[in-house]
Amino acid sequence: MKNHTCDRAEDHIQKNVVHREKDQACSGAKDNRKESAGSCAEDEGGREKDGVRDGSGDRAETGAAILWYRLRGLGLVGLCSLVFFAGAYINNQKSVEAGNIFYGNSMPVCSVQTEKKQAALTFDTVGDADVRNILDILSKDQIRAAFFVTGEWAENHPEEIRAIADAGHDIGSYGMNYIDMGKLTKTEINEELTQAHEAVQELTGVEMNLCRAPYGDCSGNLLETAQLNHYLTVQWDVDSGDWKDYGQDAVIANVTQSGNLKNGSVIRMHSGAKYTAQSLDAVIRGLQEMGYELVPVSQLVCRENYRIDENGRQIPKS
């Protein structure tokens, strides 16, 4: 093996020189693909005395820095991967299979995926509802809709609830009283649904199987209890905003120009709002001119073989 030795700088000679030449010695040899070996001979004692630092410290610091950044990079990659897979898991849990209960992740039906250009009109019917005028307009336009009522309202308006049933409209439950069922226990929700069911059935002969959450507060308790009572919970994806009393034009625009309006949309209106009956005919004409067929929500939704995504869109299984 051939060796190369670098000259040493003697410290007692170079003692008073500020800038010393760095002495290096490198040796290498190649022997049957073996790695070359090298050595550097330095007068470390003299260098330390004069405060001259060799390159080994810099190289150590550089290596440590590179190692640190690599480890930090791996940490960031790991963290990003964890966030990604956690998000995918959560998103997957938001998809609800019909017939199963996923506590805390269940969703109501807000719209339905369909190739048909169909939508459904629904009316929240509580208080002093203008049901007669709304029924007349729907009859004139040969439209069937859904009316969500409380058992209390049905008992206080027996003629109106019978007229809704006789016209072939869907009747859905808002519970016995218009209260926030999202704050109730399962037992209390069951009592609300059962009492309303019996009240409407006694007055009309109709056995309701659709329900809606008052104030839109659709809790896991409500969804589970409704399902156990063979109810499908239906909310909406297009809100007419008629309850804001902004006027007839606002109601029409909120429906026909809604960015959420699409095939399978469920439209919410209120029987007792100030401008609902006045704007209803124009809403119907506007939707029909856009090519929509208005069907009862019971015809639009699926009862089995479906899933519901995180936006409440009911997707039939193929």
Explain what you see.
- The structure is a single chain.
- The chain has 318 residues and is an alpha/beta fold.
- The chain is 40% helix and 13% strand.
- The protein has 10 helices and 12 strands.
- Strands 3, 4, 5, 8, 9 and 10 form a 6-stranded parallel sheet that branches.
- The protein starts with 43 loop residues before the first helix and ends with a strand.
- The model is unreliable at 1-57 and 80-105 (pLDDT under 50).
CATH topology (fold) name of the largest domain:
TIM Barrel
Could you describe the largest sheet, including whether it forms a barrel?
Answer: 6 strands, parallel
Provide the domain count. Answer: 3
- Count helical runs: 10
Radius of gyration: 38 Å
Number of strands: 12
Order of helices and strands: HHEEEHEHHEHEHEEHEHEHEE
Q: Give the overall shape.
A: globular
In short:
This protein has helices spanning 44-50, 55-93, 131-140, 151-156, 158-166, 186-204, 220-228, 248-256, 276-289, 297-300, and strands at residues 96-97, 111-112, 118-125, 146-149, 170-173, 210-211, 232-233, 238-239, 265-270, 293-294, 306-308, 313-316.
